[in-house]
Design a protein that fits this description.
The chain is mainly alpha-helical. Helix 1 runs parallel beside helix 8, helix 2 runs antiparallel to helix 3 and helix 5 runs antiparallel to helix 6. Helix content is 80%, strand content 0%. The chain contains eight helices and no strands.
């Protein structure tokens, strides 16, 4: 319950900030926030929560790609994001395989790919709040997954929640 209260407040903040202008972007961002809140509430059933977050990221990605503003520099950021996703994904997959949790390999790999594309789509939008939020979301989920599957991260709970709520607030602020 206490984990969902901040998300409810962020959803309210986003809703209040979504009036005026084009309606597609706010609708997609609000949908992403809603699915992420569902992910928060269902993460104890890991694949269910992960799926809700993945759907949330697809909504975010649709919103950000809808505001595509091409530049060569922004486009080139796909390289470091892809390298990070490959390294993180490889480590997670090898650890899951070694621990006999092979049923999680496909969902985790799909999630790494989608959150990485979501971050890149935010960068391609040129919206600084969306960019900062998406990169913080990647950081939050990287800490979470490393802590869950690879090795303990000191103060992980604090780092995960601080970066997660900051990410969602910034993405909501992009409205």
């Amino acid at each position: 319950v206490f984990k969902l209260i901040p998300m409810a407040l962020i959803l309210l903040y986003a809703y209040l900030g979504s009036f005026g202008g084009r309606r597609r972007y706010p609708a997609l961002v609000l949908s992403g926030l809603l699915f992420c809140a569902v992910g928060d509430g269902t993460l104890r059933w890991f694949v269910v929560g992960l799926s809700a977050f993945l759907i949330g990221h697809l909504f975010y990605m649709s919103a950000f790609f809808g505001r595509w503003r091409f530049s060569r520099l922004r486009f080139a950021t796909i390289v470091p994001i892809a390298v990070f996703a490959f390294l993180m994904g490889s480590k997670l997959i090898s650890t899951l395989a070694a621990d006999g949790k092979t049923e999680l390999i496909v969902p985790v790999a799909a999630y790494v790919a989608v959150i990485s594309l979501m971050a890149w789509s935010a960068i391609m939008s040129g919206n600084r709040l969306a960019i900062a939020g998406s990169l913080l979301f990647m950081l939050s989920d990287s800490i979470l997954s490393w802590n869950m599957f690879v090795s303990d991260v000191a103060y992980s709970g604090y780092w995960i929640m601080l970066t997660y709520y900051a990410a969602q607030f910034l993405i909501a602020g992009s409205l």
